[in-house]
């Protein structure tokens, strides 16, 4: 385990906190403040301890300075949530920043400009990391969603300062570890979405200790094609078909079952006006595409989830954004939400599905980091976590 912010003396100290404020914007306002809200426990703890709180985050994918991706709307929303003014700076490093922060009072909060305005951020440039470190006495990583990136503000700066986890990161590690360290069995993993390549690491790792892996979404067609089944015009990640075949072969030598759909909802076009029908997986017409798991598959997946004592879900079962293709995802979501098992989910599309069905608050844990959660569950070392002090 890693040390957390509660394990270090922050009283009166300058504390640089890496947060994940990569939020959607609607013009000059924040459209969804979920990620800002998630950082409040750490920010408020530091304020109460008299720390001088300096926040840094990226926003979007700028190629350089971009007025549409400045942090001003985030600062405005954070000020409202804290009930206190947040000092918004127009840069994140340099003499002017250092001078402005010198006047920050105990309990005060400053927000630096978008870290990705500097290409040195993603390059983990040592000079840029050192410039960030000059702003503070302590570094706190509370951005689990970027912990799998070896960037200057996630890993580089930690080589210059005492570095600990914020409460969000601490909780992510605790909850996800419950799945990797002696999980309760039966342990069922539900995987969907588009790409097999995004999930194959988790599949390969979980084959060693999970009891069942339920595969839906577009990624199931790579597995079906690997079995020689024609999938019509369904979306297939062709380069992942051999990888899927390897996973199916490995599963035969483990106690873990890979369960694939037995029926699918197919359509003659990707639209809400499409003609649809339910067919067995070996009966997909050549010019039709699969856009959801079928009712028989959904029923068997629900049975597996209901019998499980640990459940991890990542990825929708179909194009749930369109009502006629939401059945599979809704069935899985409701089963996971109603389960008495340990239930954990992650990934942006999965969270969007849970929110659309108003079920997110019924799971034990909804991870804030899609890619980071998947890499953690694969058993990979996350640079932003590895850089923190051991407990």
Task: Give a written overview of the molecule.
The structure is a single chain. The chain folds into two domains: 5-168, Phosphoglycerate kinase, N-terminal domain (Rossmann fold, 3-Layer(aba) Sandwich), CATH 3.40.50.1260; 175-377, Phosphoglycerate kinase, N-terminal domain (Rossmann fold), CATH 3.40.50.1260. A six-stranded parallel β-sheet has the order 5-6-4-1-7-8. It is elongated, with a radius of gyration of 23 Å. The protein contains 14 helices and 17 strands. Helix content is 34%, strand content 17%. It has 391 residues and is of the alpha/beta class.
Give me a quick take on this structure.
The protein has helices at 34-48, 72-82, 95-102, 119-122, 126-133, 167-180, 200-206, 220-226, 241-251, 295-307, 327-338, 348-356, 370-377, 383-386, and strands at 14-18, 25-26, 29-30, 52-56, 86-88, 109-111, 138-141, 163-165, 187-191, 212-215, 257-259, 263-267, 276-280, 289-293, 310-314, 342-345, 365-366. It is of the alpha/beta class. The model has no long low-confidence stretch (mean pLDDT 95).
Fold blueprint:
Blueprint: E1 14-18, E2 25-26, E3 29-30, H1 34-48, E4 52-56, H2 72-82, E5 86-88, H3 95-102, E6 109-111, H4 119-122, H5 126-133, E7 138-141, E8 163-165, H6 167-180, E9 187-191, H7 200-206, E10 212-215, H8 220-226, H9 241-251, E11 257-259, E12 263-267, E13 276-280, E14 289-293, H10 295-307, E15 310-314, H11 327-338, E16 342-345, H12 348-356, E17 365-366, H13 370-377, H14 383-386
Parallel strand pairs: 1-4, 1-7, 4-6, 5-6, 7-8, 9-10, 9-15, 10-11, 15-16, 16-17
Antiparallel strand pairs: 2-3, 12-13, 12-14
Helix pairs in contact: 1-2, 8-9, 10-11
């Amino acid at each position: 385990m890693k040390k957390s912010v509660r394990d270090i003396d922050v009283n009166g100290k300058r504390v640089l906190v890496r947060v994940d404020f990569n939020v959607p914007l609607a013009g000059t306002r924040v459209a969804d403040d979920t990620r800002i809200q998630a950082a409040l426990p750490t920010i408020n703890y530091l304020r109460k301890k008299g720390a001088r709180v300096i926040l840094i985050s990226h926003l979007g994918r700028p190629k350089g300075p971009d007025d549409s991706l400045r942090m001003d709307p985030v600062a405005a929303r954070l000020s409202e949530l804290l009930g206190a003014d947040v000092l918004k700076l127009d840069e994140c490093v340099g003499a002017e920043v250092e001078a402005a922060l010198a006047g920050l009072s105990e309990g005060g909060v400053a927000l630096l400009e978008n870290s990705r305005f500097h290409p040195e951020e993603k390059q983990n440039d040592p000079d840029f990391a050192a410039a960030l470190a000059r702003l503070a006495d302590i570094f706190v990583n509370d951005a689990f969603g970027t912990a799998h990136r070896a960037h200057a503000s996630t890993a580089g700066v930690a080589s210059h300062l005492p570095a600990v986890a914020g409460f969000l990161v601490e909780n992510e590690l605790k909850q996800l570890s419950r799945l990797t360290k002696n999980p309760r069995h039966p342990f069922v993993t539900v995987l969907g979405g588009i790409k097999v390549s995004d999930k194959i690491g988790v599949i390969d790792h979980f084959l060693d200790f999970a009891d069942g892996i339920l595969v839906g979404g577009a990624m199931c067609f790579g597995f079906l094609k690997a079995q020689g089944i024609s999938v019509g015009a369904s979306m297939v990640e062709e380069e992942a078909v051999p990888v899927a075949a390897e996973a199916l072969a490995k599963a035969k030598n483990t106690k873990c079952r890979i369960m694939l759909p037995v029926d699918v909802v197919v359509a003659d076009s990707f639209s809400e006006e499409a003609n649809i029908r339910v067919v067995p997986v070996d009966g997909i017409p050549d010019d039709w595409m699969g856009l959801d798991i079928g009712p028989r598959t959904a029923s068997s997946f629900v049975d597996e989830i209901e019998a499980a004592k640990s459940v991890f879900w990542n990825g929708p079962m179909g194009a749930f954004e369109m009502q006629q293709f939401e059945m599979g995802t809704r069935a899985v979501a409701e089963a996971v939400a109603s389960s008495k098992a340990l239930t954990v989910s992650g990934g942006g599309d999965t969270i969007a599905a849970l929110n659309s069905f108003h079920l997110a608050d019924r799971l034990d844990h909804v991870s804030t980091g899609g890619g980071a959660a998947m890499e953690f569950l694969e058993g990979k070392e996350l640079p932003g976590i590895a850089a923190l002090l051991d407990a």
